[in-house]
Design a protein that fits this description.
The complex is a heterodimer of chains A (297) and B (97). Chain A has a single domain, classed as Thiamin diphosphate (ThDP)-binding fold, Pyr/PP domains (Rossmann fold, 3-Layer(aba) Sandwich). Helix content of chain A is 38%, strand content 15%. Chain A has 12 helices and 10 strands. Chain A has an 8-stranded mixed beta sheet with strand order 4-1-5-6-8-7-9-10, with helices on both faces. In chain A, strands 2-3 form a two-stranded antiparallel ribbon. In chain A, a hairpin with a 2-residue loop joins strand 2 and strand 3. The mean pLDDT of chain A is 95. Chain B has one domain: Alpha-Beta Plaits (2-Layer Sandwich). Helix content of chain B is 10%, strand content 23%. In chain B, the strands form 3 sheets. A two-stranded parallel ribbon of chain B has the order 1-2. Chain B has a two-stranded antiparallel ribbon with strand order 3-6. The longest helix of chain B is centred in the middle third of the chain and has 5 residues. The radius of gyration of chain B is 17 Å and the shape is elongated. The termini of chain B are far apart. The chains are: A alpha/beta (297), B alpha+beta (97). At the A-B interface, helix 2, strand 3 and helix 10 of A face strand 2, helix 1 and helix 2 of B.
């Protein structure tokens, strides 16, 4: 039985033997993306889980050329890598960055914005585990409303994070970027297709992939992929692309699955009251009203 | 090919890198000690659909002769493969019975 998706990517492993937690969503995203881009990908990783688990000298888990950047400088280092290799006459390579949600939406956003503005020929992949997981689960700009982190604890008065998740995908798209997409590790064929598409487009490409973290989200290690599917089914995340100035929705659930069921599976949302869940459901409905109005199907 | 575990464990002074770069894909330790449960593939059920290969976060599953094979040196026992397998060809078994 041949699997077309598996046939379309490299059989080699470029991210192997790493020290990520069992069931890590981010490492799955990095592994899958590198298998699409092949041995000539040059990856740039800022401070974050994937650099912490991948480079523990002498255990070096990337078998392609990889480098750790400053926390804020993923995109600017990608610019330099791309320009440097081009200047030295290399043609067949891809400069790809893997930054977490904090390294993208908070600390690295100005470097990313600058790279998109210059339209450098790079791929920037944000693996979004919705908090600073590497340093022990602190709130980031992409932590959703109500989530419990160490800096937004759940008490009797305040129920976790008070702020909504920043819309990084549409922020990147607002630069009029050549290609931006959202993905989920619960749908690897879709993610692989998007990375492949991005590798064939010239200019800056931004892919935002939701990558659940069993440790930070409070789910069992074997639930990572399931929960990444459920976040899409419940409508709290969506699979979309931005290209040539238009937004396109890739997948529309026929009927949303229960938001409450999705939230209550996770330790970080255990404390939420019915009112909180109502707020989250209402904001989902508002978001989808906007998506239905402006996105092409 | 995958990065593989090098036999040599100690560095002589001359081999310690002077700067912050070193050979890519250089492994010295395995991850098998992390595991309390291990996936076991029943080869007569496995049809080689490669779903487990696609979804394994550690990339330890490969396909040989149409069947999934696990590299137990680096499997952490997360159990995603057993969950993703639609035909139930992978079962999680306790490491120590």
């Amino acid at each position: 039985m041949a699997n077309k998706v598996a046939e379309s990517i490299s059989r080699e492993e470029f991210f192997y033997g790493h020290k990520a937690c069992a069931g890590c969503g981010g490492s799955l995203a990095v592994r899958a993306a590198l298998k699409v881009l092949g041995p000539n990908a040059v990856s740039v990783l800022p401070a974050g889980c994937m650099s912490a688990v991948g480079f523990n000298f002498p255990q070096l888990c990337f078998s392609n050329n990889s480098i750790i950047s400053t926390f804020a400088g993923t995109a600017s280092m990608l610019t330099g890598v791309e320009a440097g290799l081009r200047a030295r006459g290399f043609k067949d390579f891809t400069a790809v960055g893997f930054a977490g949600d904090g390294g993208t939406a908070d600390i690295g956003i100005q470097a990313l914005s600058g790279a998109i503005d210059r339209n450098d020929n790079i791929i920037y992949i944000c693996y979004d585990n919705e908090a600073y997981m590497n340093t022990g689960i602190q709130k980031s700009g992409l932590t959703p409303f109500g989530a419990k982190t160490t800096t937004t604890p759940a008490g009797s008065n305040i129920h976790g994070n008070l702020h909504n998740k920043k819309n990084m995908f549409e922020i990147a798209a607002a630069h009029d970027i050549p290609y931006a997409a959202t993905a989920s590790i619960g749908n690897i064929p879709d993610f692989i297709a998007k990375v492949k598409k991005a590798s064939q487009i010239k200019g800056t490409k931004y892919i935002h992939v939701i990558a659940p973290c069993p440790t930070g989200w409070g789910v069992a290690p074997d639930q990572t992929v399931e929960i990444a599917k459920e976040v899409v089914e419940s409508g709290l995340w969506y699979l979309a692309e931005y290209e040539n100035g238009t937004f396109k929705l890739n997948y529309k659930p026929k009927e949303f699955s229960s938001v409450e069921a999705y939230l209550k599976k996770q330790g970080r949302f255990k404390h939420l009251t019915d009112d909180d869940i109502q707020i989250i459901t209402a904001s989902r409905d508002k978001k989808w009203e906007y998506i239905n109005r402006t996105f092409e199907l | 090919m995958r990065p593989y575990v090098r036999e040599k464990k100690d560095f002589t002074f001359d081999e310690v890198p002077e700067n912050t770069s070193f050979e890519a894909g250089y492994l010295t330790t395995v991850n098998s000690g992390w595991r309390s449960i291990r996936p076991v593939i029943s080869t007569n059920k496995c049809v080689g659909c490669e779903q487990c290969y696609l979804y394994c976060p550690d990339g330890v599953i490969s396909i040989a002769e149409g069947k999934a094979v696990i590299d137990y040196d680096f499997c952490k026992g997360c159990g995603i493969c057993a969950k993703i397998c639609r035909i139930g060809a992978i079962e999680m078994e306790a490491e120590r019975k």
